[in-house]
Amino acid sequence: MTDNITKLFEGALVLDTETTSLDFKEAEVIEYAAGSVLEVVTAVADESYEIKFTDMYKPSKPLLPEVSAITNISNRMLELCAAGSFNDDLKLVQDHMDKYEYYIAHNAFYDRQVLAGYDLKLPKELCTMRLAQRLYADDIDVKAFNLPYLRYALDLPVPDTFIAHRADADVIMTGMLFTVLVEKAIADGCIDGNADDLGAELFEFLAKPIKITKMPFGKHKGTKLNEIPLTYWQWALENVDSLQEDKPEYDADFAASVAEAVEEIFEKVT
Fold it and tell me: Measured between alpha carbons, how far is 20 from 248 in angstroms, rounded to an integer?
């Protein structure tokens, strides 16, 4: 491991939350885990697979069965855990976060919104799902970008007994995924492997919009963006939250792709 990679792995915190809802606006944290990439690599190397900063928390209401089915956390487990609510540990979590320049999560948008709901201030973001989408965009053998799929598609060195959607296991998988993606980004020439600050290289690389060519939702789902009627886009720009910069659902990739598509439509009709 080169010095600049070690520096990146020491300064990047991998985190994961398990919550009471897929809707971040109402989600309460019921499990949180976090550790540096270097801690993850060490835990895999020595086969301890342990993350020190992890705990479960009691929500304000009992978990619904559908939540337990996703998280593999039951109400009985939460009753037995020693911790109170996540609110009780906010200072501890914030103090831990403040030691790092970057944080890493898979589908970081969700974790960011959940943790922002607790007024936590996160370091700079490096999302492994976004990084995988950029690096494998043209690879027909990679058919999905969720963490459980990438775990097997990229043969991450984690035990088969790991249960997806448990925070400590997801931190280990996300951390190891990050190491694989960094190696590929360097090998593909997407970032300068000799740069002193690889985190800054990755941050800049991830800031570039990912082009979306087909509508991902709604009545025009699956249609090429530049083939959707202009009247729809006129309505969408006023009413679709993912196109509104002041909304938490704002999607910069989608907005940039729509802007390009609308420009193409204008060129055709003028």
Answer: 19
d(CA 247, CA 224): 25
Q: What pLDDT, on the 0 to 100 scale, is given for residue 166?
A: 93
Residues 6+ apart with CB under 8 A from 260: 211, 225
Do the strands 102-105 and 124-127 form a parallel or antiparallel pair, or are they unpaired? parallel
pLDDT band at 65 (very low <50, low <70, confident <90, very high): very high
In this prediction, residue 111 carries a pLDDT of 96
Name the residue among 151, 108, 110, 114 with its Cα closest to residue 126.
Answer: 108
Q: pLDDT tens digits, residue range 105-141?
A: 999 999 999 999 999 999 999 999 999 999 998 788 9
- Adjacency order of strands within the sheet including 53-56: 53-56, 29-36, 12-19, 102-105, 124-127
| CATH T-level topology, domain 3-207 | Nucleotidyltransferase; domain 5 (3.30.420)
Q: Is 217 left (phi over 0), alpha (psi -120 to 50) or beta?
A: beta
Residues 7 and 5: their CA atoms lie apart, in Å, by 5
Select, from the ranges 28-42, 218-232, 243-257, the one with the highest average predicted confidence (pLDDT): 28-42
For the entire predicted model, the pTM comes to: 0.85
Q: Where are the domains of the chain?
A: 3-207, 225-269
Count CA atoms closer than 13 A to 57's CA, side-chain side.
Answer: 22
Using CB atoms within 10 Å of the CB of residue 131, give its burial: 0 to 12 exposed, 13 to 18 middle, 19+ buried.
buried
What is the rounded distance in angstroms from the CA atom of residue 32 to the CA atom of residue 93? 9
